[in-house]
TrEMBL record:
Protein's organism: Streptomyces demainii
MF terms in GO: DNA binding
PROSITE patterns, A to Z: HTH_ICLR, ICLR_ED
Swiss-Prot/TrEMBL keywords: DNA-binding, Transcription, Transcription regulation
UniProt-listed InterPro entries: GAF-like_dom_sf, HTH_MetabolicPath_Reg, Tscrpt_reg_IclR_C, Tscrpt_reg_IclR_N, WH-like_DNA-bd_sf, WH_DNA-bd_sf
UniProt xrefs under SMART domains: HTH_ICLR
Any one Pfam family match given in the protein's UniProt record, by short name: IclR_C
Domain of life: Bacteria
UniProt-recorded name of the protein: DNA-binding IclR family transcriptional regulator
Span of domain IclR-ED: 72-249
Domain HTH iclR-type stretches: 10-71
Length: 249
């Protein structure tokens, strides 16, 4: 994929990445115009780059004319050594949790100032969630996010709070002091909770997957209906996270 660029200082590869960056969990499918607007590229340039990405397999066109991420990118992403090893170690435990709870089971890793979902098991009986594999979640409003943030140091905490704690629901923690207190409890108990802080009607409990050096590798979480008794799910998710850590490190 090559060509000339019209914007000084911006290479073809930077423009291709700008096109791919327009897609996220909130925008999994976009029209040509939306890609151009979100990437800041002229429509003609966006069209050319989209066609090149389609030919390579990085994007696919839906019947309604919109585009979404292609299977080739998913295949390449799955080759990431960290994610592959974590997924292989985690899947047996995730299946056990799912069989026992019939709720959403999520495995996430830290990516920048967000939690990236790298595996999920669910069913039509589970509470609906906005999370998809490859989707990102806020660290301050989710169980898995708090489990990651609690063990990631003061620098990340400062970055997250200085950027502003977005209110996802009326229950979201938006005060840095309250969040700091909640994370202190997570570091003590190795369990994090979210009570309708991300989605109304849904609660979650999560546990960090820690390496031998205490570095957080991932977070394993259960997302359930708000009527669920999280205290009954806590020992299971904590035990599963410990099991994953033994195999992943």
């Amino acid at each position: 994929m090559a060509g000339r660029t019209n914007t000084p200082g911006q290479s073809v590869s930077q423009r291709l990445l700008a096109v791919l960056d327009t897609f996220d969990v909130a925008h999994p499918a976009l029209t040509l115009t939306e890609v151009a607007t979100r990437s800041g590229l002229p429509v003609s340039t966006a069209r050319r780059l989209i066609n090149e990405l389609r030919a390579w397999g990085g994007l696919e066109r839906l019947d309604d004319g919109r585009y979404h991420i292609g299977m080739r990118l998913w295949t390449i992403g799955a080759l990431s050594p960290q994610q592959r090893g974590l997924r292989e170690a985690a899947l047996p435990y995730m299946h056990d949790l799912f069989q026992a709870t019939q709720e959403n089971i999520q495995l996430t890793v830290l990516e920048g100032t967000q939690a990236l979902c790298i595996e999920k098991i669910s069913s039509t009986k589970a509470v609906p969630t906005l999370t998809h594999i490859g989707g990102r979640l806020p660290l301050h409003a989710t169980g898995v996010g708090k489990a990651l943030l609690a063990f990631s140091g003061e620098e990340l905490f400062s970055s997250v709070t200085e950027a502003g704690l977005a209110r996802m629901t009326p229950h979201t923690i938006t005060q840095p002091g309250r969040l700091a207190a909640a994370l202190a409890e997570v570091r003590t108990s190795h369990v994090a909770f979210s009570y309708e802080e991300m989605t109304l009607g849904a609660v979650s409990v999560a546990a960090p997957v820690l390496g031998l050096n205490g570095r957080v590798l991932a977070a394993l979480g259960i997302v359930a209906h708000s009527r669920a008794a999280l205290d009954r799910l806590t020992p299971a998710v904590r035990t599963a996270a410990l099991g994953i850590a033994r195999w992943a490190t």
